[in-house]
TrEMBL record, chain A:
InterPro entries: BPD_transp_1_N (IPR045621), MetI-like (IPR000515), MetI-like_sf (IPR035906)
Designated name of the protein: ABC transporter permease
Cell compartments where the protein resides: Cell membrane
Any one cellular-component term (Gene Ontology): plasma membrane
UniProt keyword Transport, yes or no: yes
Record family assignment: Belongs to the binding-protein-dependent transport system permease family.
Automatic annotation (TrEMBL), chain B:
Domain Solute-binding protein family span(s) in chain numbering: 89-480
GO terms, molecular function: peptide transmembrane transporter activity
Protein name per the record: Peptide ABC transporter substrate-binding protein
CDD domains cross-referenced by the UniProt entry: PBP2_OppA
Organism field: Oceanobacillus jordanicus
Length: 310, 561
């Protein structure tokens, strides 16, 4: 296990290196300068500023410098926020995004699994249809529509929760629900299909024949096996949450990192583009690693170290 | 049947339990941080809750380039001058008007001796000397350093890295006397002195903070009515509180201003509607339309002018737009009023000239530049078609294909559609190809002159028509149209040099220049002067909006509930 994890971590570093390199060169194709007041700068001034920030050097040199600095743990200084280090910006902004992502993932999978189990057990009843409807609804409605709708109904009309801002847990409820709708839908659909499959298999019939109660059969034997494919989709789900968060963060005025990701590209804020990309890449690779490890725990048949000869 | 109900109940109970537990812990933590701002208004404190649309990029006046930062300086700092409610520069840290030498180049400012920084230090002449030299120093990397170029003696050379910042002609003869030498007499100097880049800085404080200066509210000093607080450098909230060291504290009513950023216009409106905000920032078109005529809606004419810019030379070749008749035809063929009313509907006003209204007044009669210059080119389909026919004949073609370049925001796209429709309907044989691209791409394309028509806006750097007019001199940095007219160059040069110390003549020459630029040569086709529609509660009194510098000043605001 330790050997496997070490190996995976080495791969993770290599992956990040490749992502950083590709992003760096692609980013340099962006037209224009990172200077906000670009339009009004004289030619001389632009040259002076380029020199100050090392942007006058050939791209490979800039790349080498950047990579050396990364190794030293220095992600550079933002252009949009003068003299603000990228690490400081990430540190300030990552918290709310992670909290929302985590809450949405947790609530999303729990409710999703519950819905899926109910739908499978009461196949072709109104519970099943209701659950399916919810899943299709959650998959197809764009998060900005759902978020705006939530905000209007619960925040403005009913006044139950704060309309926006990031001010304690109560302000995280609506954005969490808005984000969770997608994982709920995904988890419910998967759970239903898998569970119906598993419930029809021989060992379940055996378990039933042994006189186990329906509940015992379902939860002890069926659900656990049906969970495996769901774990596979947790990765893509996490990605969905990250992209969804950009919109939801904006609507609920949450100081998260998602929105900075887009804005940095629009403003040619090179250090932030790199910082956020690397951060998202890191998060994603770590999530995938965790999921792979989880696999082994839930299903012992899956050997972690591929071709393990021991 | 019984069993299935049982499961259902369990599932429901679980779900409800989850949601409830989330809500409970919510009300605990929520009340800790959230409550105080609302309670305070009941205790007789004057509290204002505002919405802004963007973060503060920097608290360093030399580095600031954007509206959000300048708004902060507008509340927390004062220069030699500030803008009054009618955008007239009035002395602030300067104690009355300066002494000016005969040739109009040497200014001696007396400073008020009661002005203090929020740490208790006095605001001295050296604070200006230090701040200005720092701003022009290429090491600082100020993107507004050019605001000193051609104004203060030696600034141009310093900004271009050819001279030492110490050579800037500004000097503190004693703690409260500042001597400034100009390159040429400058009509609009007072408005420059009210601009953010010309603000004073406390040398000791700035040097002590080093690179951290202006990166959060602890690393900033105020010498204005308010102090910035609770700004962590990247956050979406901050507040202003009274600056106890401010010399005119008796005239400041607001105790506290809470600012929340909402980039989503719909959220801003919802916060306003639920009473969480007393004022929104400018609303986007769809909301402006909805709130037009609402009792809470306020409109303001900003200082930026928007127009179609015609490229006469693309990739080294003349474009059809090098033909004057074609340009005139295009400039007359769209309905500006319908555009501002129906597409923008945010208080923007149609413009038949290039220099915006409210920017500058005739030094003798006090008449506004726009009023005096009058309507230079207006919507007139018949005339447009005449010019069009003539132009096509001169070019020897029946039809034209032109690129129309603009931003890729929702609003810009809508605008593009409108202009395509107007131009194609009114001018036979014209095909407009829309190119909606991201902002940075648009800038790049215009700089490379790789376009035919671009929707372009320009805002003032100081309160004088020159900030608009000198763009179109031959090879000007922002000309980008290939336009070159000796007569125009001469007029601009006369206004800058020959008549620098003769305000009446200078004014006349600028009027002539605008007429030549728009009416005769039609280098640009004026469309509108941008307005903004904000929502503001009727109990908020005395908020002053500006068309230059900070968007507004809160010093005189009172809450009258």
């Amino acid at each position: 296990m330790a050997k496997y994890i070490t190996k995976r971590i080495i791969f993770l570093v290599i992956t990040l290196f490749i992502i950083a390199s590709v992003t760096f060169f692609l980013m340099k194709f962006l037209p224009g300068t990172p200077f906000q007041n670009e339009e009004k700068l004289s030619v001389e001034q632009r040259e002076i500023l380029n020199e100050k920030y090392g942007l006058d050097q050939p791209v490979p040199v800039q790349y080498a410098n950047y990579m050396i600095n990364i190794v030293k743990g220095d992600l550079g200084v933002s252009f949009q926020f003068d003299n603000q280090s990228v690490t400081h910006l990430l540190a300030n902004r990552v918290g709310p995004s992670l909290q929302l992502g985590f809450q949405a993932m947790l609530i999303g999978t729990i409710i999703g699994v519950l819905l899926g189990v109910l739908a499978a057990m009461f196949q072709n009843t109104w519970i099943d249809y209701g659950s399916t409807f919810l899943a299709v609804f959650g998959k197809s409605i764009p998060s900005f529509v759902f978020a705006a709708l939530l905000q209007f109904v619960i925040g403005v009309k009913l006044g139950w929760l704060p309309v926006a801002s990031w001010d304690g847990f109560s302000s995280s409820i609506m954005p969490t629900i808005a984000l969770a709708i997608f994982p709920i839908a995904t988890a419910a659909r998967f759970m239903r299909t898998e569970l119906i499959d598993v419930l029809g298999s021989d060992y379940i019939t055996l378990a039933k024949a042994k006189g186990n109660s329906r509940m015992e059969v379902s939860f002890k034997h069926a659900v656990r096996n049906a969970l495996i494919p769901l774990i596979t989709v947790l990765g893509p789900m996490a990605v969905g949450l990250m992209t969804g968060s950009m919109v939801v963060e904006q609507i609920f005025a949450i100081p998260g990192i998602g929105e900075q990701f887009v804005k940095s590209i629009q403003t040619n804020d090179f250090p932030i583009i790199m910082g956020t990309t690397l951060f998202f890449a890191f998060l994603l690779t770590v999530i995938i690693l965790i999921i792979d490890i989880l696999y082994g725990i839930i299903d012992p048949r899956i050997r972690l170290a591929g071709g393990d000869k021991s | 049947m019984k069993k299935s109900k049982y499961y259902l109940i369990i599932a429901l109970a679980l779900t409800v339990g989850l949601v409830l537990s989330a809500c409970n812990s919510g009300s605990d933590s929520g009340s800790d941080d959230g409550g105080d701002s609302n309670n305070s208004s009941e205790s007789g404190k004057q509290v204002l809750n505002m919405i802004e649309t963007a973060e503060i990029p920097t608290g360093d006046p030399a580095l600031a380039t954007d509206a959000s930062s300048f708004i902060v300086f507008g509340q927390t700092m004062e220069g030699l001058y500030i803008l009054d409610e009618n955008d007239n520069p009035i002395p602030a840290i300067a104690d009355g008007e300066p002494e000016i030498s005969e040739d109009g180049k040497e200014y001696t400012f007396k400073l008020r001796e009661d002005a203090k920084w929020s740490n208790g230090d006095s605001v001295t002449a050296n604070d200006f000397v230090y701040a200005w030299k720092r701003a022009v120093d290429p090491e600082t990397g100020s993107q507004y350093a050019y605001m000193f170029s051609g104004i203060i003696e030696n600034a141009t050379a310093i900004v271009n890295g050819e001279a030492d910042p110490e050579e800037l002609s500004v000097e503190a003869t004693d703690d409260y006397t500042l001597k400034v030498t100009l390159e040429e007499p400058v009509e609009y100097l007072n408005s420059l002195l009210a601009f953010g880049t010309y603000l004073p800085l406390n040398e000791e404080f700035v040097e002590e903070k080093g690179d951290d200066f202006g990166t959060n509210s602890d690393n900033m000093l105020a010498n204005g009515p308010f102090v910035l607080e609770e700004w962590d450098g990247t956050g979406l909230n901050w507040k202003y509180t009274k600056n106890d060291e401010y010399y005119d504290l008796d005239n400041v009513s607001l105790d506290e201003v809470n600012v929340q950023i909402s980039k989503e216009p719909g959220t801003a409106v919802n916060l306003f509607e639920t009473g969480k905000a007393d004022r929104t920032a400018a609303l986007s078109a769809e909301y402006a339309k909805q709130y037009k005529g609402n009792e809470n809606a306020a409109t303001f004419e900003e200082g930026s002018s928007w127009y179609l810019k015609f490229n006469q030379e693309r990739n080294g070749e003349e474009t059809p737009l090098a033909n004057e008749n074609i340009r005139k035809a295009l400039a007359m063929s769209f309905d500006k009023e319908a555009y501002t009313e129906q597409v923008l509907s945010n208080g923007s006003v149609p413009a038949d000239g290039y220099v915006p209204r409210g920017l500058a007044k005739n030094p003798e009669t006090g008449e506004d530049f726009r009023e005096e210059s009058g309507s230079l080119i207006s919507y007139d389909v018949e005339k447009a078609q005449e010019y069009w026919e003539k132009g096509l004949e001169e070019l020897g073609v029946d039809e034209l294909n032109l690129d129309y370049l603009s931003d890729d925001t929702e609003n810009a796209k809508k605008t593009s559609e409108y202009f395509k429709n107007q131009l194609e309907t009114n001018l036979e044989g014209l095909t407009v190809n829309l190119k909606n691209v991201p902002f940075k791409v648009r800038l790049d394309t215009v700089t490379k002159q790789d376009y035919d028509i671009v929707m372009h806006g320009w805002g003032p750097d100081y309160l004088d028509p020159m900030t608009f007019l000198d763009l179109y001199v031959t090879d000007g940095g922002n000309n980008n149209t290939g336009y070159s007219n000796e007569e125009y160059d001469q007029l601009i040069d006369d206004a800058k040099v020959k008549y620098a110390n003769d305000p009446a003549k200078r004014w006349e020459v600028m009027l002539e220049a605008e007429k030549l630029l728009v009416q005769e040569d039609t280098v640009v086709a004026p469309i509108y002067q941008r307005g903004r529609l904000t929502l503001i509660k009727p109990y908020v009194k005395g908020l002053e909006e500006h068309l230059f510098g900070p968007d507004y000043s809160l010093k005189n605001v009172t809450i009258e509930k």
